[in-house]
Amino acid sequence: MKTLTELVEEWLDVHHGKTRASYQNTIHKFLSFTCVEAIAEIQIRHVREWLDSLQEAPTTKVKHLNILKAFFSYVTSMEKPPISRSPIPKQFKLPKPKDTLVERILAPADVDAMIAATTDKRNRLILKTLYLTGIRVSELCGLRWKDAIASRGGGGQINVYGKGGRTRRVHVPQELWLELMSLRGEALKDAPVFASATLRPLAPSHIDRVVKRAAAAAELENAMNVSAHWFRHSHATHALDEGVPVHLVQATLGHTSLDTTSKYLHVSPDRSSGEVLVKRWSEPF
After folding, report:
1. Which residues contact 273 (CB under 8 A, 6 or more apart)?
2. Distance (Å, rounded) from C-alpha 210 to C-alpha 152?
3. Can 4-77 and 102-271 be said to share one CATH topology?
4. Among 14, 73, 210, 279, which residue carries the largest CB count within 10 Å?
5. Catalytic annotation on 264?
């Protein structure tokens, strides 16, 4: 019979990168709190008490719960599982947290203002690349020049190594492509696209500082809260608002589920289907 530690390590080995790190963080915090030695000892009260003890946002607690559910689901699906069912009942859920996505989407004018307020060439291209490709911050930091491939019809493509170890190809508009090639200069193919003064890849924290400085320079009201990921949210929302097919946005962003992309269809409070219907009336009632 495998020990609890062995089960955890086996489950973590299925995952990679940030996903593994996130799962590891959750499961280790939970087990440190419960102090159980065998998986059969874990009960729903342990889960409930641990979640209640956390001084974290509701959305983070929901994420922790889903990770624990995933772990127990993995264990119970083994060929000879040490437990017959998960200690977390299917009906056990936390209150649904407030959806704050709409608060993390920049207006098109705000995106333009941030780019215009950034004078450094590299930093300006960082903002443009985040917005026009919709890639994640970690994906941006991982880009190498060998990932950039010119297209016959103008512009280019970048091979993006994304979440879950999946690779996708994202089109780069010609204007952005030309600016990126200008930035490259004589850089070798294995060099990072966005490098530091020591020619090393920029860290995600550095990208976030670039974004916050741009937001402050553009005098955005919530400048200190703006993060690089807001450009990804904004890319999805603005593209869908402009009529880009949802499946194309899904492919560009690398979402495995269409449901994830579709949530951006509902985050434009200043737009509604009523705007279309009201145009049938030549005169108001």
Report:
1. none
2. 33
3. no
4. 210
5. yes
Least Cα distance to 207 among 226, 188, 220, 189 occurs for 226
Burial of 233 (0-12, 13-18, 19+ CB in 10 A): buried
163 assigned to active site: yes
List the structure tokens of 247. Answer: 């499946």
pLDDT greater than 60 at residue 285: no
Tell which residue, 226, 250, 17, 23, has the closest CA to residue 141.
Answer: 17
Helix axes 121-133, 108-116, angle to 10 degrees: 160
pLDDT at 275: 52
From 64, 124, 128, 136, the catalytic residue: 136
167-172, strands of its sheet edge to edge: 148-150, 156-161, 167-172
Catalytic residue from among 232, 233, 235, 238? 232
**Strand ranges inside 25-155, DSSP E:** 148-150
Work out the pLDDT band at 152, boundaries 50, 70, 90: confident
184 in active site: no
Give the span between the Cα atoms of 11 and 20, in whole angstroms.
9
Predicted pLDDT at 17: 83
Catalytic residue flag (residue 232) = yes
Q: Please state, in angstroms and rounded to a whole number, the distance separating the CA atoms of residues 127 and 107.
A: 14
Of the residues 163, 168, 171, 206, only one is catalytic, namely 163
Q: Which CATH architecture has domain 102-271?
A: Orthogonal Bundle (1.10)
CA distance 7 to 4: 5
Q: Which amino acid is at 113?
A: A
Instruction: Mark whether 16 is an active-site residue.
Output: no
> 4-77 has which CATH code?
1.10.150
**What are the residues whose beta carbons fall under 8 Å from the beta carbon of 35, sequence distance 6 or more?**
none
Q: How far apart are CA 31 and CA 4, in angstroms?
A: 10
Residue 102: name the closest of 274, 222, 276, 268 by CA: 268
